[in-house]
Amino acid sequence: MLLQDTALIFGRYARQTLRSKFHIVFGVLMPLLYLLFFGPLLTGLPLASTGDSWQVLVPGLLLQLSLFGASFAGFAIIVEQGQGVVERMRVTPVSRLALLLGRVLRDAALFVFQAVLLVLAALVMGLRAPLAGILIGWVFVALLAVSLASLSYSLALRVRTPHEFGPAVNAFVMPSMLLSGLMLPMTLGPGWLDGLSHAMPFRHLVDAVRDAYVGAYTTDSMLYGVLVAIGFAVLAVTVGTRAFRTTGA
Amino acid sequence: MAVISATGLARTFRTKTGPVAAVRGIDLTVRAGEVIGFLGPNGAGKTTTLRMLTTLLPPTGGTATVAGCDLVRDPVGVRRRSGYVAQSGGLDPHISVREELITQGRLYRLSTADATARAQELARELDLDGLMDRPTGALSGGQRRKLDIAMGLMHRPEVLFLDEPTTGLDPGSRADLWALVRWLRAEHGTTVFLTTHYLDEADALADRLIIVDRGVVVAEGTPSALKLHHTGSAEATLQDTFLAITGRTPTPAHTAPVAV
């Protein structure tokens, strides 16, 4: 029943997304700009990695896609709250978990699609990485999208207005991006900054994807990345489901 | 047979300034096939009670059953057997009437074939069949309200909760909605529990009124019995009766357009 309900909600939101081609492609614009105008600056620089600069930058851009895209997913549910759509769904027998999962899986599918476009563009720019590593990168994109979209919906169901929601998400996203080493590995920085970044869950994810992009699948970084990504997803989905159960209470 | 039954139903909210008792103990019984007008001044606890009866809000005290299912122990049972049409409707303006109806049916566990057939049936009955492929955002206010009600009826609920169903409608659309509520009861025996600020609407539609104030039921009975009991005259208006019971008017009350 959970699968059926989730598929139903997913279908509704997937159709909604497919109606907006602009939305599908626009999300990939910022990472593409980084790829085009920032990527070439790194060529040949020592980036504390066994891979080349593209193998360092592209994993960061992939997770940046999820970080920026999924964190703001809650805006849509604020609009839906105003239209009464959330309330209408909450009075149906569909489980609260399915109400969340249907939405966040749509988000994950969207960001993985954008990640595919990004990797294709990066391959044209000069990226070379093993196929397994590229596939692992997309799995991390999906997991991070599920986690952040869940938390974003949870926050949006509580704050109600875009004016409260936007600044709150920005206050989270910018430090997360800077402290996770999405652009450049944190090992390049001073010890205190590198140490501080270990407290950021995204740091472990991006380290894992960078390892995957150089074909290193059995490293400590990969293990920590997998554990953090799964743990974060379970925690975020639990919080998000609770938000669907208790919103307005 | 009681379709809705509540005893001491209560809800207290925790706020920064301390607990606020929005509903302090509602006792009510609604029999199968009745049309109930649930009235009260602003802040009386109408919306909170409705949100509890539709499982959107858990009660903090008392007990209640809807269509034989306990609100707290079996909220999914309540959801399966009841329909709720919120004031805001809950339609996505970009989705077609057909898709909204079918998805709604599927949310209530109908197969796609059954949901499609039920959508056609309701569209015919509610005069929406020429609009099935239009996005809901392109409908007029009255058409949208009919669609809201069709959405609430997709799964053939035993009881239908209507929250301010005619707010914002023009007189013609209001009259259509009144006819629809009467038809629902006459043709399908659906129990209707409606909140409204419009006393003429309650007077015209409801078999029985339940009036709440300050979180408790302060009066209930047929419109004529309430008028006679509280004003001494069966010819009194419901506005006078309401004022006699609560000392207040149900904002925005009598400013409603009169249905023709």
Automatic annotation (TrEMBL), chain A:
Keyword Transmembrane recorded: yes
Record-annotated membrane-spanning stretches: 22-42, 54-79, 100-125, 131-156, 168-188, 222-244
Membrane topology: Multi-pass membrane protein
Main location group: membrane
Protein location: Cell membrane; Membrane
Domain ABC transmembrane type-2 per the UniProt entry, residue ranges: 22-247
Keyword rRNA-binding carried by entry: no
Keywords, comma-separated and alphabetical: Antibiotic resistance, Cell membrane, Membrane, Transmembrane, Transmembrane helix, Transport
PROSITE patterns the record matches: ABC_TM2
Pfam families: ABC2_membrane (PF01061)
Family named by the database record: Belongs to the ABC-2 integral membrane protein family.
PANTHER family for this protein: NODULATION PROTEIN J (PTHR43229)
Descriptive protein name: Transport permease protein
Annotated source species: Streptomyces albipurpureus
UniProtKB/TrEMBL annotation, chain B:
The keyword Nucleotide-binding appears for this protein: yes
Alphabetized InterPro entries for the sequence: AAA+_ATPase (IPR003593), ABC_transporter-like_ATP-bd (IPR003439), ABC_transporter-like_CS (IPR017871), ABC_transporter_ATP-binding (IPR050763), P-loop_NTPase (IPR027417)
Residues covered by the ABC transporter domain: 4-239
Record membrane topology: Peripheral membrane protein
Pfam families: ABC_tran (PF00005)
Localization per record: Cell membrane
Name of the protein described by the UniProt record: ATP-binding cassette domain-containing protein
